[in-house]
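note to self: dont lose this again. the chain is below, predicted strucutre after it. 196 aa total, dont forget to put it in the shared folder this time
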Amino acid sequence: MSKSLTMEAVAVKDVAEGEELTISCAVPPSTPDTPCQTSPNLFSDIPTDLPTEIRSGMLEGIYNFNCTCSLCTAPSGERELSDRQRNQIIAIRQVLVDPETTLVKALDLATELLALAQKEGLDIKLKDYYNELMRVFFKLKDVDSALEFAEAALEKAEEFGGGDDEFKVAIRSNVAALRKRRSETAEAEAKAGTET
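---
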C-alpha cells in the first residue's frame, strides 16, 4: 500500500471479462520445515501449494470458512491428482534442504519442483521456490545455479508489482553478492590458469 491510500493489485493469471475476482484468506506461506504453520499476520500468502485437506482445514480452523474456489470444488479425481502433485512438491522441498542431498540430486529435484509448480499453476509461489533453490545451491557451492535462481526470484517478485519490500531488497542484495562471488571465482581461476 502506498501513502496515498491506493493499492496496486496484479493478477497472477489472465482475467476474463466478467470473471469474479476474489481475495485470499491469508495464512502464512509454507516452508519445508513448517508446511502448515499458522500466524496472526492477516496479510501473508495463503499456502496454495498445500493439499486440499490441509488448506481447507486451515481455513476452517482459523476463519470458520469453507472455501469454494475452483480447486477446492473440483471433481475428486482432479483434486486427488493435484494433491499428489502438491505432496510431491512438499517432499521435494524437504529433500532439497537435507544436508545429504548431492548437487546432481538437487539439480534433478529443482527441475522436477519447477515442472510440478507449473503443472499446478503455482506461479505466485515461484519467487519463494526460486529463493529456496538459491539457498540450496549456494550451500552446495554452485554459485552459478544460486545466482540463476536468485535472479529468477527477483524477476518473479518484480513481476507481481508493489514497492521495494523486504523480500526484493534481500534478493537484490543476494544477487549482487552472488555476482561478486562469481566474478572473484572467475578471476581466481583465470589467475591460476596463467600461473601453470
